[in-house]
Every structure is written in C-alpha cells, then in structure tokens.
Design a protein that fits this description.
Radius of gyration: 21 Å
Helix content: over 70%
Number of helices: 13
Largest sheet: none
Shape: globular
Strand content: under 5%
Mean pLDDT: 85
Length: about 325
C-alpha cells in the first residue's frame, strides 16, 4: 500500500513537472513566433539606468512589505508574539527557491522552516499562505480591472468583454472568500451535493480550506487593512514594469499600458509554466500590450526587462541564503 502511494505521488509529481515544462515551452514558442530577437536586443541595448534603479528600489520595498504582511498574518493565525527580524530572510528566500526550482518548492520550504523555527503547526503556516494568495489574487484583479477600465483599448469591444467578465467573476469570488468565507463555503457545498465529480470535490475542499484560513485572520477590519497593504505592495511591484517601460524610452503619458500588461502578466503566472514563471509571464504581457496597440518587439523588450528585475534579486537571494546563512536556533515565542 505504501509503495503504491509512493508511486502515485511520484507519478503526480512527474506529471506536474512535465505539464509545467510543456506549457512553459509552448508559451515561449508562441512569444517568439512573431518577434525578431535582433529587434528586441537592439531595444534592450538602449535601456536607461535611472528608471531601472527606481524599479529595483520599488521591488525591494515591495518584498519587505510582503514580509511584514506575512509576519502580521502569521501572528494573527498562530496567536503568538513572533519576532519580525528572523522571518524576513527565509520569507524572501522561499520566493527565490521557487524561482529556480519546479513545483513551487519554495512554498514547501517556507512551511517547514516557519513550522520548525517557531514551533507552529504546518497547517497554520499553510493557512496563512492561503490567505496570502487570496489577498494577492483579489488585489491584482482589482488593479487589472482599474487598468482595463481606464486604458483606451485598440481592439474591438467584443474581445474585451470576456476579459471584463473574467475579472468580474474573479473579483466577486475573491471578495466573497475574504469577507464571507463561511457563508460561501456552505453555499458551494449545498450546490455541489449529489455531484460526484472529483473536480467539484477538490474545489469544495480547497474552498473550505481557504474559508477556514480566512476565519483565522479575525475581523473584517483586519481583512480590510491586509487588503490595503496588499494593494500597496502590488502597486510597488507594478513600478518594476513601469520602470522598464520608461527605461526603454516609451512615453510617460502611456503608463496605463504597461500597468495593464503588469496586471495580466501577473495573473498569467497562475498558469503552469517554467520555474520563475518564464513563458507565461511574457505571453500574457504581450497579449495585454497587443490589446492597447504596442508593437511586439517593444512589448517583449519591456516585459523581458521587467521580468529579469522581478526574478534575479529573489533568485540570487534565495540561493545565497541557503548557501551562506547560518542555521538559526528556534526562536522563543510568547
């Protein structure tokens, strides 16, 4: 029985890795199909330094704010007075690990490290990470909807409607999980009664886990504060793509275009892809830029430059932290 379960887990792992590779390579092929690398390279050679420095500064501030948000949520869900300092390094390192290894192994590292370091149950850490993901989804959808509403799209209205509907459904679902999690879980469970689909069962189970995690956070006022913090950090991260846009000499009056591309590139990372989200990030960013009439070489140059800034610092930090950070003793908690 144990051997059978191990084989099933290995098979599932191999399938997930294979799906990510196939999807990521497919996205790369689609991106490169209509773009000449020589044009993209020529544009990248003209990049200006100052906007990139602003982008890097914003990215550092973004991740520090992310670490503080996770620390606040972990304190609330575990009901312990945790120190902030020892949580920042491994939190950022977990993103770097996921940026270079498949299967989002950085998430597993974060669960194990925080659980052992602070003597917190793995379930509590996982629940906190679920809340983190829900907050991120809701806030990036909000930013995407705002950008889509404000930008002048150069495509036909009928092509915009599916995007608007998708953002609306995601926003309503995310806000429901944030503010009425238990009610939403009961509603979905009742609607799914009598349905034997494994997919529906898995969805209901995931929704219950998300609802339980949100209940742990506490009052709706705390949720509002965490949502506001999430909006702030995603705006900071969007400056990376805006900085890449300005660095390549694109007009400042068109900043809504890279802002829209940032939102859709980020949402595209929900799709399985290569480690670091390479492939999916570029593909969905190019689709958003095409929506607002930006030519493919310029769009790809901007997205690649932004993606490098988003990937390299955390990847290098994660590898460096694993190699050189001294093992820390478990922290005493109140």
């Amino acid at each position: 029985m144990v051997d059978g379960r191990q084989r099933q887990r290995r098979t599932a792992t191999a399938l997930r890795v294979g799906l990510g590779l196939v999807a990521g390579i497919s996205f790369v092929i689609l991106v490169m199909r209509d773009v000449h690398l020589a044009q993209v390279t020529a544009l990248l050679h003209e990049a200006k330094l100052l906007p990139l420095l602003v982008a890097i500064f914003a990215f550092v501030a973004d991740f520090l704010l992310r670490a503080v948000r996770f620390w606040i949520m972990l304190r609330q869900t575990s009901d312990r007075d945790l120190p902030l300092g020892p949580t920042v390094g491994p939190f950022i390192a977990s993103f770097g690990i996921s940026d270079v290894l498949p299967l989002r192994l950085g998430d597993g590292f974060r669960v194990v490290w925080f659980s052992r370091q602070f003597n917190i149950s793995a379930g509590t850490v996982i629940g906190t990470m679920i809340v983190e993901r829900i907050l991120d989804l809701v806030t990036i959808v909000i930013l995407g909807a705002v950008a889509l509403a404000l930008v002048e799209a150069s495509t036909k209205a009928e092509l915009l409607l599916p995007l608007q509907l998708s953002l609306f459904v995601a926003l309503v679902g995310g806000l429901s999980i944030l503010f009425v999690p238990a009610l939403l879980a009961r509603l979905i469970e009742r609607l799914s009664r009598g349905v034997s689909s494994a997919l529906v069962t898995m969805f209901v189970s995931a929704l219950k886990s998300a609802s339980a995690a949100m209940v742990q956070v506490g009052s709706w006022r705390k949720v509002v504060k965490l949502t506001a913090m999430s909006l702030a950090l995603w705006v900071l991260e969007s400056i990376v793509l805006l900085g890449a846009w300005m660095s390549l000499g694109q007009p400042a009056e068109d900043l809504l275009k890279p802002f829209l591309a940032f939102a859709f590139s980020t949402l595209g990372t929900l799709v399985p892809s290569l480690p670091g989200h390479f492939g999916a990030f570029e593909f969905f960013g190019l689709q958003a830029f095409a929506l607002v009439g930006v030519d493919a070489p310029t769009a790809l140059a901007v997205v690649l430059l932004a993606h490098l800034i988003l990937w390299a610092p955390t990847a290098l930090f994660g590898v460096g932290w694993l190699l050189f950070a001294a093992p820390e003793k478990p922290q005493p908690v109140a």
